[in-house]
Amino acid sequence: AEIFAIVREARDAAVNFVKQAQREGRAIYGYEVDDAARGVIAGRGYGEYFVHRTGHSIGEDVHGNGANMDNFETHDARRVIPGTCFSVEPGIYLPEFGVRSEVDMMTSADKAWVTGKIQQELLRI
């Protein structure tokens, strides 16, 4: 539950970063979205366990050709273009278990939103 709470906070930090930037009309770059999520996880002492980019562009065949939310595998300085879709999926992967929480986002010229429900509770299976 503690790890899920950190991952949820990281996911929400990235989502809120994108929403705020779109409202303000600021350009958003893939690496900035990654930094927003990664900063939360690193700040809680789990940075070394977040071993992938925060998200990727979504196209017609899942992974698209647009900006990835990445400052880990690459420094993606491409702009998140209004009218595009992308994932936000931070995670912490410990030796015993891992937790990832994913949402997909859309953008328009002046706003951004999550396309589905946002998981708030840990689902134990």
What can be said about this structure in brief?
The protein is α+β, with helices and mostly antiparallel strands and 125 residues long.
- Unreliable runs: none
- The percentage of residues in β strands lies in 15-25%
Q: Could you give the order of the helices and strands?
A: HHEEEEEEE
N- to C-terminal separation?
13 Å
Walk across the major sheet and give the strand order: 2-1-3-6-7
Question: What proportion of the residues is helical, as a percent range?
Answer: 25-40%
Please state the CA-atom Rg, rounded to the nearest Å.
14 Å
User: Based on CA inertia axes, which overall geometry fits?
Assistant: globular
Number of helices: 2
Got a strand count?
7
What's the average pLDDT?
94
The chain-level structural class is alpha+beta
What characterizes the major β-sheet?
Answer: 5 strands, antiparallel
Question: What report would you give on this structure?
Answer:
The chain has 125 residues and is α+β, with helices and mostly antiparallel strands. It has 2 helices and 7 strands; from the N terminus they run H-H-E-E-E-E-E-E-E. The chain has a 5-stranded antiparallel beta sheet with strand order 2-1-3-6-7, covered by helices on one side. A two-stranded antiparallel sheet has the order 4-5. It is globular.
Short descriptors:
125 residues; alpha+beta; five-stranded antiparallel beta sheet; two-stranded antiparallel sheet; 30% helix; 18% strand
